[in-house]
Amino acid sequence: MAKKPWGGRFKEATDVLVERFTESVSFDRRLYKYDIAGSIAHARMLARQGIIPKEDAEAIVKGLEEIRDAIDEGRFEWRVDLEDVHMNIEHELSRRIGEAGKRLHTARSRNDQVATDMRLYLKDEIIALDSSLKDLQESLLYQAREYFDCVLPGFTHLQHAQPVLWPHHMLAYFEQFRRDRERLKDAFKRVDVCPLGSAALAGSDFPIDREFVRRELGFSALSRNSMDAVSDRDFVAEFIFCASLVMIHLSRLSEELILWASDEFSFVELPDSFCTGSSIMPQKKNPDCPELIRGKTGRVLGALTAIMTILKGLPMTYNRDLQEDKEPLFDTCDTVRLCVDVMARMLRGTRPRRDRMHQATRGGFLTATDLADYLVEKGVPFRSAHEIVGQVVAYCVENGKELWELSLDELKGFSQEIEEDCFERLSIQGSIEKRNSFGGTAPGRVKDALEEAEAWLRSHSIGE
């Protein structure tokens, strides 16, 4: 069992059960690149400030780079008895370069060290997730461009409401993921803060240069309060909240794809490469990928609950509870990016079925509101027009007809204001073309929205 770096005041060895209970290296080892980067910057600063000899700093940097290479190549032995990624690397450094390695931890604590690692890691994860979301938006724009003339029923309460263009529906999701990316960009600013130099909680009594370390590590700002810097993980909670919304939007899109791919709808054909079969029913083509995305949303929402619960009762400053921040964060990062990547590729191969969508627009009285609007244009108050059209729909239901199948005489029986020109408004195409308000589903508006979305996609990025 290794001698603990903090073991000077202890007379008994750590219980084996406690070793298992308190270790985090089984999951925090993924921070090694960031831990080493922070240590290299710290060592260079210590030498620059005359706190440790220059030759020791050079040996430290060389040793850390060798350790990083060994980990990259799978030649590094991780030890649970050394607790975490930090102690594993520091122990190996001292083994390789001797006494010089023991100088590395001067003027810092594991408290500010892990906070730095977490922020460096999360910066990269946010940039990677933003890139994946951009690919997903590209897939949505592909659907909008490729199948621009497709028309389908829009739904409220999962009942036929009004006809909309397929690209309008795809751009609705584009807007949701646009806001997700904007939230991530805003959250990135609060992650991009360097806490190194805060030490355990009160700062350092050595003449350190925190600004040098900030520049070396590529942070945009320095933390302003040493106690806050080591004790809060609100930046983790904020990211997981942003990721939770991404997953909720993915889950909503997944739900629609699942419904649309069913025999009852048959609005889309999902690519075979993103579906699976049944072990007993040879005819089945199951939408497992969107189902799994819908299911994995619960994992990320659970991670949000976990991190908020961890933080809610902590006194200042660092408490070991904060070790529990990593697994929810790591699982969130892995889950959300994989789900986004799967959705982006699946959407590329998804094919809308124009015939089934068109057939669906022939029922459900999708242009009833258009008839009410027509009456309003003829001078009828909207509430009166609403009542009249409601009576027309009831008549259609009783007689098994659609609105456009009624004769002019039948329509006039409900209102003398109705003329021959109403039939243009009762058509699906006429209804769509009339929805010409900004943000509406009229073809011209959708083309404008598509061009704006493409321009936004070209200009938006994080970390550049």
Report on this model:
By secondary structure, the protein is mainly α. The chain folds into 3 domains: 7-108, Fumarase C, Chain B, domain 1 (Orthogonal Bundle); 111-194 and 207-359, Fumarase C, Chain A, domain 2 (Up-down Bundle), CATH 1.20.200; 362-459, Ribonucleotide Reductase Protein R1, domain 1 (Orthogonal Bundle), CATH 1.10.40. Helices cover 61% and strands 5% of the residues. It has a two-stranded antiparallel sheet. A hairpin with a 2-residue loop joins β1 and β2.
Key terms for this structure?
464 residues; mainly alpha; Fumarase C, Chain B, domain 1; Fumarase C, Chain A, domain 2; Ribonucleotide Reductase Protein R1, domain 1; two-stranded antiparallel ribbon; two-stranded parallel ribbon; 19 helices; 61% helix; elongated
In brief:
The protein is mainly alpha-helical and 464 residues long. It has 3 domains: 7-108, Fumarase C, Chain B, domain 1, CATH 1.10.275; 111-194 and 207-359, Up-down Bundle (Fumarase C, Chain A, domain 2), CATH 1.20.200.10; 362-459, Ribonucleotide Reductase Protein R1, domain 1. It contains 19 helices and 6 strands.
